[in-house]
Design goal:
Layout (H helix, E strand, L loop, with lengths): L2 H25 L9 H28 L8 H27 L1 H5 L4 H26 L2 H24 L8
Helix pairs in contact: 1-2, 1-6, 2-3, 2-6, 3-5, 3-6, 5-6
């Protein structure tokens, strides 16, 4: 598969995932403003896991339209992706700190999955830095997109399968 096709496919999946967020909001029994902070955080993670890879794909497709294709295209794409991942990670960490430590403990066994995802996400960020500065290959850039889409899909499944959080923490 050519990079342009792969990016187009990634963008389509990201748009579908963002649309699923609307489905989640529409089928909940209460208004979004009445949701608990934990459920709002879950929705934030779902939307971010759709929008970050979408913007990365669109940026890559934009650069692919330049003729002749720049040799450093994947350096630039990974740098852009790293900025997006960092900004999303910063705001996610901020929102998580608003929830407090008890919210993470209340996740039960899912908190270990949360920690594994955080570690893998950090590794993906480091790979993006490596790709932006040294390697400049497409597959490392695309690995970040796939990771984010996979996490978004997992978050969507969790929101569908888990009942709404009942406490106001």
């Amino acid at each position: 598969m050519e990079p342009g096709e792969a990016l187009a496919t990634g963008a389509q999946i990201a748009v579908a995932l963002a649309g699923f967020a609307g489905v989640v909001v529409a089928f909940r029994s209460s208004s979004l403003h009445e949701w608990s902070l934990v459920d709002k955080f879950r929705l934030w993670l779902l939307l971010g896991s759709a929008l970050v890879p979408l913007l990365s794909c669109l940026f890559g497709m934009l650069l692919l339209t330049i003729k002749p294709t720049p040799l450093s295209i994947w350096h630039w794409c990974s740098g852009f992706s790293l900025v997006l991942i960092s900004v999303f990670g910063f705001f996610s960490r901020r929102r998580q700190s608003e929830l407090g430590r008890a919210a993470i403990k209340d996740m039960g066994a899912y908190r270990y999955l949360f920690y594994v995802i955080a570690i893998l996400g950090t590794a993906i960020g480091l790979l993006q830095a490596y790709n932006a500065l040294i390697s400049g290959v497409f597959w490392l850039f695309y690995a970040a997109i796939i990771f984010q889409l996979a996490i978004g899909t997992l978050q969507f499944a969790r929101m569908i399968l888990l009942p709404p959080h009942t406490s106001e923490t």
